[in-house]
């Protein structure tokens, strides 16, 4: 039996609607949990102190998922099975009074829990994941975020197998038991919803440290990992301490318990989880050393550690009333972690990366069948709503509020929010209201950002009148229709812009205007010649800008704009325009592009990390997003051609840069990291140039690297080439890192992302590799999510890519519906492709949707994708 607790969908799963929200009828002030832990048979006793909320005569309803009560008692008296019933999975008990002690006992089997929700086993550990609705797989409980309880948890387990026993809050007692067992009791003084419950049992080693808070309290910090991974935890620990200090300095938020623990597990559905005082992490966001982790891995660890830590206030102390409010905690916390990372490194590059992520994930989501507002209106399975829209677009909303308010008033707003709602479960509306009251602003129209889906388009028209020296600018907005929202009202869009004098290269100051209607006309005077418009500076609003700017203006901005995002954007737009024109039949005009790149890579005033971002070609997927109908083959061919052209034209510059950026001895300094990044870009152009020594140079970098950043960069270049070095490097990489799961993931992923005509067959063969398993989400994603993101390979005209991913979804759904459901959206993009591809994608979605016994998760994604 794969999993005794499954969530198979009924014929049509019920739709949960935001407007149907009802406050809880019963509250649980306190819960005492007792675990007798065993991988195959864990006993869970729960004692709930319940109180009736308001005047009603409705029974107590406790959610369960695949649970069978072994016993039920009320106020110390066992109930006979006639006194309770199971309504589907919900335990229903009629209670006479207004306050009772309700006890239940169940048995669960962590070892067969392949969904990784609830209590499950991972590499010899027992651990939990309860968000969003996993607690009901552990015990009967009102498993909704607006029921806040104080938790008192006792764990009993075999001491040799599970020497470490952790839970939320503070450790209060522990002791020995007969038969080699032991116990520990943890109490969390802060009331919390069940989704924040956590416990871990296992043989773990601890990187222990401490942090003294701003009021002088010492907090014990622990990062718990397998003994052999201890040397890889120092970066995460530094990130944690930096996060704690940053939240005090920037938001005035202090940590509130005596201990803060992080545990790394290798089987985890998402990135990490903010359980109160006991964060549980996917090991890929904890473990790093130069030999096994790239610079982007280091950055991801820093930002995920910060994200989960920041949730202690934006999520735990103030939580969500219901799951429609998910962006209340996620949008705000992503914004907080983005600002933290910007402060820890280069703010300019961080913004560029965040916008790239937003465009790649969220803009695509917003343009397809799964588009939904930041605050969704309905769902079948809430796990499907941990999306780029809720997280990343949600963060952009907070960023816009911060921009409109300015730093001081934004801080007054957040202070009021935390003070007003501490200990409560609240809504996005409560957040906006606190920002209005604390910041002194009217966000009336701004609220549409929470309720309207779709990415607004901003079209810009400029008219310069040489006689009067004036420029008129017309901004127009349109918000496209999205599922369930055919008509849209105009949004409040903050637009930052500047007008450059092409003669001096200066502008007369940045302006912020807020577009509130369909159209806005502005006139600016005093220009001896037509100024150059730099628009949506800093990417202040998450919109698509359509401005017809000449190659000359773009080249000017690429060389002169003082807003680094806009400078990057101009450079990218120059490349995009050239490529799109070529794809639609024009000759490839690369001279201006090459000139701009030459100027950028030889500008000594620029940070190398920024240079690397600016001169990199836009991804194939992003180019596809700019087309009416995505033509993956034409995009690939054009992009390769431009890459070769840039490589050839600047071969000596790339060669020089590649040599200059080499370093003796590894360092994590910003300078060294920037050099590694630019070195990788230089190598990619050098190899693309067709230089006869290209493959040998790449292999040399691969072979001699003293760090994973350079080694993987070289491997990622070699896998695209049909050279003997390709196979040599892949074999050497595997030999070197066999047994290190996180690095073997990279080996799978790099091959799935390759620009190689046989990538489909290569991925198919890799699925049969001894190290491949669908049971581990990181491994499954390394192969299939990476492959589905490889536009050219996934959309190969014979449709084999679609079939392979659909097969994987159907197989994975039987084990882990959440992870399977995340593979569906790439197939849902069928409207974006030509008729033949679209029909094949639809056929695969139909095959998935018709599979008997499909989970609610995959069923929702597949049926919505077909609509
Ligand atoms: N709240 C977490 C995200 C998360 C959601 C669900 C999970 O398991 C199914 C795990 C993590 C965060 O934002 O980091
Ligand atoms: Zn989060």
UniProtKB/TrEMBL annotation:
One annotated GO molecular function: alanyl aminopeptidase activity
Residue span(s) of domain Peptidase M1 membrane alanine aminopeptidase: 236-446
Domain Peptidase M1 alanyl aminopeptidase Ig-like fold: start-end pairs: 454-547
Alphabetical list of InterPro entries matching this protein: Aminopeptidase_N-like_N, Aminopeptidase_N-like_N_sf, PepN_Ig-like_sf, Peptidase_M1, Peptidase_M1_dom, Peptidase_M1_pepN, Peptidase_M1_pepN_C, Peptidase_M1_pepN_C_sf
Needed co-factor(s): Zn(2+)
Domain Aminopeptidase N-like N-terminal: 88-196
Record has Oxidoreductase as a keyword: no
Reactions performed catalytically: Release of an N-terminal amino acid, Xaa-|-Yaa- from a peptide, amide or arylamide. Xaa is preferably Ala, but may be most amino acids including Pro (slow action). When a terminal hydrophobic residue is followed by a prolyl residue, the two may be released as an intact Xaa-Pro dipeptide
Domain (Peptidase M1 alanyl aminopeptidase C-terminal): residue spans on this chain: 552-867
Segments traversing the membrane: none
Keywords: Aminopeptidase, Hydrolase, Metal-binding, Metalloprotease, Protease, Zinc
Family of this protein: Belongs to the peptidase M1 family.
Protein name: Aminopeptidase N
Organism: Sphingobium lignivorans
